Amino acid sequence: MTRNVFLDPCWREADLGKPLPDSTHACSVCLPTWQSNIDYEEGVEAVVAKLEAGYPRFVINPIVRELHQQMLDMHGHPGEVRALAFCDPSAAARCAAFVEQETGRDDLVRIDGCSVFLAADAVGAAVYYWRYAGDGISSRSAKVLMDGGVLSDYAADGESARAEIRERIAAEYDGVAPDDVYLFPSGMAAIAGAHRVLQSLMPGGRFVQVDFPYVDALRVQRHFGARLSEFLHIDRDGAPSVAFGECFGNGDIAGVFVECPSNPLLRCVDLAELAQEAGRRDIPVVVDDTVSSSRNVDVIGHADMVSTSLTKWWSGSGDVMAGSIVLNPRGKHYERLKRAMDAARLPELCAPDALHLAPLTEGYAKRVAAASDNAKALVEWLRDQPEVARVWHPLTETANHYEAIRRADGGWGALFSLTFHGGEESSARFFDALELNKGPSLGTNFTLVCPYVLLAHYDELDWAAELGAPRDLVRVSVGCEPIDELIAKFERALAAIHRAA
């Protein structure tokens, strides 16, 4: 029987490794205790062996793993130890090129259509590409193939579903037409696609990442293409550590990436000032609005491209990967970006995933509004609790900059982070006792909690702390549960801080 994690959350030790949601296509997994998150990062077999799911770029879905093994068994050559399937032949070719670039050898990978077959020395680089390019085959496409189906049979219905999704997304942005919306197999594929397009317009150009980023976006800039990227820190008041004009220099920059607000510190840069300084130097700006959503913030007027992970609020279900890039038709770079996007061999959201996502997008506005209202109430309540040391949320961080991009009818977003007096010990006690779903990702109908910095920055915890993201930070993606139930669960978890270990 399928477990309804909205009503029956996965939070106990016995829930370790359970998929979130209870689906073969789940995009998260339950890591119910503070220690289980550390053990996952350390690769402790007792934890890793229990994972029935995970974020698909990092924990390959079991259906996809089965497909990969079948491919290797049926089509592998002597000396090949692993196979990976991608969404299209261009993605497979990019993976092979990355392997050759990383290893300096062209005899370690073989391309066969949408797949690559790997010698042992190629596996590390190929898996790295899979994780950060975001264009691996999806679990729904893999299931079609494993069941003996043909993906082309879904082509017509899939295109209708993609058209429906593009129309809904376009309606969120003033002046945007559906053909200015590009759909990708994941949010990371959208970011990587934007990066490739911008790099094609300025080969060898460098990039600037503004503020503490979703780390995978920074890895795309530093490990793909020309591999030239700078990080511009933003302080608690939203001011850059170096003036935008000074950082952007003489304009030899292929693009600027920024999240509004950022994850997990929920800060907003002065987006108008950033866009103005970039515009003076003809630098395209890519703004990611995933965290707060296009329902709450309107960033298109300050961006040339807007990236969004549709896996999050647009889906709400947590069981489908997708992403988008929206071009600003009023932007000064629109014409050349449009030509470059249309000419690029960009990966596209597959038909089975589009068919699943399209009906979910109908509930986008209502879902975002309910979750944002809940988060605002929780944040205001938590700020008065003596156990809480700090709360990060657009209400508490650079509120003036967020207000400048907030829609007239928009909320303050449904993501926040917090720490406790007593440091990591208190965070662990709170986290372990919290009776809500615990795992990575965000933007689901159900509340989802994780020790974000431990999961995202385990190998660079000192660097993250220097930039204001401490290891004891707990990140909360608030869902649509009744607010009184959420507060009651937080209250019980706070009480656990005072109990003996």
From TrEMBL:
Keyword Transmembrane assigned to the entry: answer is no
Q: Name one GO biological process term.
A: transsulfuration
Q: Which UniProt keywords apply?
A: Pyridoxal phosphate, Transferase
Instruction: Please list the GO terms describing molecular function.
Output: cystathionine gamma-synthase activity; pyridoxal phosphate binding
Point out the signal peptide segment: none
Q: Which SUPFAM superfamilies match?
A: PLP-dependent transferases
Highest taxon of source: Bacteria
Report the cofactors. Answer: pyridoxal 5'-phosphate
What PANTHER family would the database entry show?
CYSTATHIONINE GAMMA-SYNTHASE-RELATED (PTHR42699:SF1), PTHR42699
The entry assigns this protein to a family as follows: Belongs to the trans-sulfuration enzymes family.
Instruction: State the name under which the record lists this protein.
Output: PLP-dependent transferase
